[in-house]
């Protein structure tokens, strides 16, 4: 939901709420900011009347010259020196009132006479009866919070069962609970149709087995392709994820017999992957109609649920569910070229598969926004050509005010080609990457950099691997034993003008790449015009982007002591306002919020 405060001494506060996160921006352009030290932020929880000044970690050196890695301070004395701020500690479906107090003067003589700015907000329900429920895991194992709570210990090294459970719950952030609830809703006579790349997280596999045992018709497609290999050092690697998938299924008591039609092994198209992660719920009570879909980026693995950033998306829409069921039925026949087929036969079978899939939803060839339907449009792969990838690129390039995208495997050349002619006067774009975009060794293609010149800002997965004053050494999902290849950013979603009254969300399993468009088994949904979905995705994108932006900048720049001091300590004057001059990155972020539409009012 979107909220706006009354104008107070020239300030207006804007807020966007998700389920657990609230993103704020303070429009300061009509206010007198001379000698402004920042804002003290107070929050009132309307559930219980709880009232407190929010905590922070940056301090005035004049008041606290030697902060430690465990230092936590109140914004009452050590204010927020930013016009964009987020509260990541909220509960869903809860009303809050925030007071922003402009503080002036000096650290040792703070002037608190400025009028407070009040804004009332309400967070979105985590579980609702609407078309979209969206669940993000924490996705920031590389954090100060994980170090403070769990001492950077890998979960499997925790001897205390209570600590292990708390760590798992903190990392998953109810993503696993939602997934298990989707499965548990199925009763005797209902049907669950699953389709997965990685399928070896025991609690979820066991939940499917329990559904089968209570009379639910369970049918699951898993990637089971043979791809054994030996690396350059002579180490043998067994087929992944085939071996882990099948071993976990056997352990849970599933029959793998083809004749039982419970587990369908996807083995065709050996050079491509069955990259889906979706479930279709078919309800006996509703005339055996498909009524809901679980989709998103989350593999059924320990690392998918607890490590890298991921999202699960629960869709309640019969038309969408029906299309997913038809897609499942196509894949259940294991279509495509198989081992032993000649080249001509492989090509014929693969093209037939693509033709069948595109009958479910033809390409959307983007010329203008009239080409993108209102509501939900599922897009399935593999497809013929790159038209849909080009459409995603054109949608992003045609944003009016803002675009946000997560890219787990780098920036596809198409995105660069379209964004390259943008200027700093075009819409602002935020790219959240698994790793920094930089020249590749031995690449035949010239490296093309996009950045502030095109109004594009990037953050990428990284962590603080040394002591940075009071910031402690962190860890990564790889070091915690949760992920090996994609460690940080695994979600795949695009937001176009998320703060408008006509936002667009694209989300699913595909990596905005050529293989994910015309080779792999993938699914995406385009959601147009749903503010609830856009607000939840936008606030979570902010949470992740802000977390990694600081770490990416720190890891990429060799900073001297003075620069570190400037980053760690609060400015004792209004010098911090220099970062908010017109045309600068931080100014643009405030400006983006000021164009927000579709407000809610709370009495």
What does this structure look like?
The protein has 603 residues and is α+β, with helices and mostly antiparallel strands. It folds into 3 domains: 2-122, Immunoglobulin-like (Sandwich); 132-137 and 173-360, Endonuclease Chain A (Endonuclease, Chain A), CATH 3.30.870; 369-529, 2-Layer Sandwich (Endonuclease, Chain A), CATH 3.30.870.10. Helix content is 26%, strand content 25%. The strands form 7 sheets. A 7-stranded mixed sheet has the order 13-21-20-19-14-15-18, with helices on both faces. A 7-stranded mixed sheet has the order 22-28-27-26-23-24-25, with helices on both faces. Helix 3 packs parallel to helix 4 and helix 7 packs antiparallel against helix 8. It is globular, with a radius of gyration of 25 Å. 45% of the residues are buried. Residues 558-566 have low confidence and may be disordered.
Strand content: 15-25%
CATH homologous superfamily descriptor of the largest domain: Endonuclease Chain A
| Largest sheet entry | 7 strands, mixed
**Count the strands?**
29
Quote the average pLDDT.
93
Q: What would you call the structural class?
A: alpha+beta
Low-confidence stretches: 558-566
Tally the helices: 14
What is the second-level CATH architecture of the largest domain?
Answer: 2-Layer Sandwich
Provide the CATH top-level class of the largest domain.
Answer: Alpha Beta
Count up the domains: 3
Order of neighbouring strands in the sheet with most strands? 13-21-20-19-14-15-18
Q: Percent of residues in helical segments?
A: 25-40%
CATH topology of the largest domain: Endonuclease, Chain A
